[in-house]
Amino acid sequence: MKVIIHRGTKEIGGSCVELKTDKTRILIDFGMPLVDVNQEPFDSKSILGKTIEELKKLKILPDIKGLYKDEEKNIDAVLISHAHLDHYGLLKYVNPNIPIYMSEGAKQMIEASDVFIPNKVGKINSRVIAKYQKTAIGDLEVTPYLVDHSAFDALAFLIEAEEKKLFYSGDFRAHGRKSVLFEKIISDPPRNIDVLLMEGSMLGRGEQIYKDETAVEEVIEGILRQKKNIAFLFASSQNIDRLVSAYRACLRTDSIFVIDIYTAFVLNEIGNISTRIPQFSWKNIRVKYFKSHADSLAETDHKELLYIFNKKKIELEEISEKRRKILMLMRHNSLFPVVIKKIDNIKEAVIIYSMWQGYLTHEFEEYCRKKEIEIKQVHTSGHATIEALKAFSDAINPKTLIPIHTFNKNEYLSLFKNVTVLNDGESFVLRDN
């Protein structure tokens, strides 16, 4: 079995790994880059309208023969670990005859996001893969493991072929609401692993301010109890753990959690997978309608939800009137200035910034300072700490550990055992010892 990391040996995001035997070729993840060649944030809009050949020349699409539309199919399957764009965002270019395997939750999240984002994946040959059950793809046997991550229903993969075993960690952590999944792998790891492809997003980032999701929830609750004006939660609508934390804090403080149509739709679509996921109809949740979201949903087969969500609709006038009881989910985009213009006396409002600090720009900080809006960073990472990475690698104890999904691959050499550092495009062959 041969491993080729087409992208991911020197960066976080854009992950793409090829596994190849004499009979079978598969990819694991096919994500959009997070940074460009200059290490600046990648502009996802830059790919709109470009051909596959143009994107190959720009090194955005890897040159993998038999993968793309209008090519003769020569890839047997693509496995998607989870529904973050840096792991699935380039799927629209894949030959539609190639099956795309993912969890039920990832499938639902990708389809829900597609309604609202400009870079839509569109119709793909998606297939749900059953967790902890072996699935044969050619001469490969694939077993998905559910992992704790900020993406919903995220997977790692055990792949067996030619009497060799490879474990792909995907993105994972040990401190979320599903930390029991990490403990499960540590206590009963896959055995006799020849190669571990392990993420290292947290290498080089320093210590977290808040150690786990429980701590984040407690801090949000404390802010809601003490605030003098409206609070805004800056968080991803796909970070379900964070939405649960915010909602629980709202219940304990009798605050109103205001979400948008996009968030209500995402929660609705995955509500059949877990009964613990808050829904728009639940106590203390209201839905704010924005025209762009409503227009997007109105163009789909789910447009009837606009009438259903309307039962919990809240207007800006009511938000302003009840601002001291409001926690409103927002993002720093064009909608935020529109909202705060409608709030009577925005002074001493607070933003609970619950995203990676790297997204927080100086320009936005200055904008908030002038408006006298306080920003409080309340976040815990979706990725494993160095301690968790060490525990993970020690438990699995691979013959070879290969860094992926990291800007700091050379740090692995001093932190872990049996490390082999690869470059993008370099092959690694699993041979008999």
Describe the structure.
With about 425 residues, the chain is an alpha/beta fold. The chain folds into two domains: about 1-205 and about 380-430, 4-Layer Sandwich (Metallo-beta-lactamase, Chain A), CATH 3.60.15; about 215-375, Metallo-hydrolase/oxidoreductase (Rossmann fold, 3-Layer(aba) Sandwich). Helices cover about 25% and strands about 20% of the residues. The chain is built from 14 helices and 19 strands. The protein has helices at about 50-55, 85-90, 105-115, 180-185, 215-225, 240-255, 260-270, 290-300, 305-310, 315-320, 335-340, 360-370, 385-395, 410-415, and strands at about 1-5, 15-20, 25-30, 75-80, 100, 125-130, 135, 140-145, 155-160, 165-170, 195-200, 230-235, 255-260, 285-290, 325-330, 350-355, 375, 400-405, 425-430. The protein has a seven-stranded mixed β-sheet with strand order 6-5-4-3-2-1-19. Strands 7-8-9-10-11-18 form a six-stranded mixed β-sheet, with helices on one face. Helix 2 links the parallel strand 4 (about 75-80) and strand 5 (about 100). The longest helix is centred in the middle third of the chain and has 14 residues, at about 215-225. The protein is globular. The two termini are about 15 Å apart. The mean pLDDT is about 95.
